[in-house]
Design brief:
TIM Barrel; Immunoglobulin-like; 30% helix; alpha/beta; 688 residues; 18 helices; 9-stranded parallel β-sheet; Rossmann fold
């Protein structure tokens, strides 16, 4: 971080952040005073403005009108509400795309995408960059020292819609990126394997983005284009950031999108550029386990923040507008989902948006002030959450400790899900979520880390489907086990290096010796024809012709082409042990495997009953145990201390009513504070 800031500092008085996106340009000025009064009633202390304000403050090129933004900035500051000020560059105005249609993005089939939505720009466009930075200059000079300003917000959800542009300008920038990466054409040809299909390049000008072809494309070319595209958007962030730094000393960030359906930014490479890590997350009802995915996103965001508190920049009070069925949240659900993020390391909770829009494509997206107004359950829930955050203000700055790490990679996601792989039924993020859900169901708190991250201090590391891994990152996992740690690695891991080159000699490539196995071939399984294992459980989607070298079989196939062949193995390696799951296990079996590995590694196993999510934050000489009851029945948990939401002392057992949340402050023994763990977390993701 360049201008390191704690999230609590953004609230103005060291408390937890409670905030929202506010779009006053959508409302008559007569509404603004009422909005600010209601914000104060709800306890809101940070408001994002000017996120999509470009056309409002620069209605014509070079003509700036700041009167309304001045009024909003002053009004919020006068009422003690801080501002998270957007640079306004998220969507270019119509005058720019009309005068310069070349700024518009182009898809892989060569089709230009037109304005009328948002993010209608090519990230490589020099015209867009020039006009965007001119706007940032004006905004930062005008507001850089405004008394209400607490945070700069660059653009918005960079790459949500336009992360991949295939136009000629992007092609030229891609070639420049490749020159910097490889230096020579010989090195590029070797990395891309262009001896295949007569693809060898003899001049840089011959290289294009992976536009649509009549056949499959070069996988390393596609992988590098993903890398380039992520770097290109990050470069735009850094260009805006540089202008802000020149004119202001206020911290700078942008909102990430760590979510199941967003995969085009490698946030491990983005995180070091942020003063505060921020994420947007919405409950995704298209998933089989949306609450587990919510927890995964929160844990990943904490990983990006290197274990430090972060801010939830956007989530919803109820329904969103972009899923096939946009479900409103039921009784108590908003509090439960909000406090899940808080439990897992957030020091700030913000909503999109403050007041529900009456027009536009997001008019049915929920808000803190819904269409029904303040005489609504949504508004009562909003006020309640503000009150809860006030009661929990002492947790600001505390952190989460975990003995278990899960390795997750955006690079692997890009490579894993490409064409011409053994099975199109196996998708990376689904396998990552499956491993995480088993840990979540087991009640284990997990740190999500990058490949190559420092694993010292963890007891168990879980590595799901890490198809692509660099040799040096595989060595980190090997050394972790050799030094006494335990690892659980799932199938289709260690197969290729960073250039998508298969490691010869048998699968799982980089992990063969560590796992004590050798697989000579993959045998994907039809989803409608599961296999039976020798413990009576079912396996699906994947099997292998697996041979043991030094490992022992823990489960074997009882049906299929490989009856008697190992499906799950364990290998003692150095002072530790490494497990391998060579198929898609049933959730209960995977959970049992992970619990068994955790117990052998010395991880303290949780005792929370089913349906009760338990996460602990530490700091200020206390532990804060968050207990979130996702069931329709009361749950009990053994803990003693002070329950902060009811201000009641707890002796031995606390009751968590159906659908409710309880937060118990305890005072741990000195030996339980585990001080060195935080030192580990501050450096664990420095590998990128």
């Amino acid at each position: 971080m360049t201008h390191a800031a704690t999230v609590a500092e953004l609230s103005g008085n060291g408390q937890l952040v409670y905030g929202c996106d506010y779009n006053p340009e959508q409302w008559d000025a007569s509404v603004w005073q009422e909005d600010v009064r209601l914000m104060k009633d709800a306890g809101v202390n940070l408001v994002a403005v000017n996120i999509f304000g470009w056309a409002e403050i620069e209605p014509e090129q070079g003509v700036f009108r700041f009167e309304n933004l001045d009024a909003i900035m002053d009004l919020l500051a006068e009422n003690g509400i801080g501002v998270n000020l957007g640079t306004g560059t998220a969507s270019p105005p119509a005058w720019l795309t009309t005068a310069h249609p070349e700024v518009l993005p182009t898809t892989a089939d060569g089709t230009r995408r037109w304005p009328g939505g948002r993010q209608a720009f090519c990230p490589s466009s020099p015209v867009y960059r020039e006009r965007a930075l001119a706007l940032v200059e004006q905004v930062s000079v005008r507001y850089g020292s405004h008394p209400g300003l607490r945070l700069w917000h660059v653009s918005n959800e960079l790459g949500c819609h336009n992360s991949l542009c295939y136009c000629d300008v992007s092609a030229d920038e891609f070639r420049g990126w490749l020159r910097a990466r490889y230096g020579t054409l010989d090195a590029l040809n070797a990395a891309w394997g262009t001896a295949f299909w007569s693809q060898r390049y003899s001049a840089w000008a011959q290289i294009l983005p992976p536009r649509l072809t009549l056949s499959t494309t070069n996988p390393t070319q596609t992988l590098d284009f993903n890398r380039f595209s992520s770097d290109e958007l990050l470069a735009h962030y850094c260009a805006e950031e540089a202008v802000l730094r020149r004119n202001s000393e206020i911290p700078v960030t942008t909102n990430f999108m760590v979510a199941a359906h967003i995969r085009n930014q490698d946030y491990w490479t983005w995180a070091p550029a942020m003063d505060v890590i921020a994420n947007d997350h919405y409950v995704d009802h298209r998933l089989d386990a949306p609450l587990a995915e919510l927890a995964f996103a929160a844990d990943t965001t904490r990983g990006l923040a290197q274990g430090q508190p972060w801010i939830l920049m956007e989530h919803s009070t109820g329904a969103v507008n972009w899923q096939p069925r946009n479900l409103a949240k039921g009784p108590g659900e908003m509090l439960r989902t909000s406090l899940t993020h808080l439990a897992r390391g957030a020091d700030g909770l913000c909503f999109f948006q403050w007041r529900a829009s009456l027009q536009g494509s997001e008019k049915f997206h929920s808000a803190m002030v819904p269409h029904a107004g303040t005489d609504s359950q949504t508004w009562r829930d909003v006020v309640e959450l503000g009150s809860v955050l006030e009661k929990l203000r002492e947790i600001a700055g505390t952190t989460v400790h975990a003995d278990v790490a899960l390795v997750f990679s955006w690079e692997t996601w890009w490579a894993h899900d490409q064409e011409s792989h053994p099975s199109g039924d196996v998708q990376y993020i689904e396998q990552v979520h499956a491993a995480y859900k088993a840990l979540w169901d087991a009640g284990l708190t997990v740190d999500v880390v990058a490949p190559g991250a420092d694993l010292s201090g963890y007891k168990l590391v879980v590595v799901p489907n890490l198809y692509l891994i660099r040799d040096e990152h595989a060595a980190v996992i090997r050394d972790f086990v050799d030094n006494g740690g335990s690892a659980v690695i799932t199938f289709f891991s260690g197969i290729v290096d960073e250039n998508e080159k298969v490691r010869a000699g048998g699968y799982p490539g980089a992990f063969r010796e560590l796992l004590g196995i050798r697989s000579e071939e993959f045998f994907p399984v039809d989803a409608e024809q599961p296999l039976t294992l020798d413990n009576g459980s079912l396996a699906s989607l994947w099997s292998e012709a697996l041979h043991l070298t030094t490992a022992e079989a823990m489960l074997s196939y009882a049906t299929g082409h490989h009856v008697g062949t190992p499906a799950v193995t364990r290998n003692h390696f150095g002072a530790g042990e490494a497990w391998y799951a060579g198929t898609v296990l049933d959730n209960a079996v995977l959970k049992d495997l992970l619990l068994r590995a955790a117990a052998a590694a010395g991880v303290q196993l949780p005792d929370a009953p089913s349906g009760l999510e338990s996460v602990t934050r530490r700091g200020n000489g206390h532990e804060y145990v968050f207990l979130i009851n996702h069931t329709s029945e009361d749950r009990k948990h053994r803990v003693s201390g002070m329950e902060l939401l009811t201000a009641e002392a707890v002796a031995d057992v606390v009751v968590i009513p159906a659908g409710a949340v309880r937060v118990v402050r305890t005072t741990p023994r000195i030996s339980d504070t585990d001080g060195p763990a935080q030192d580990r977390k501050d450096s664990r993701n420095d590998s990128h």
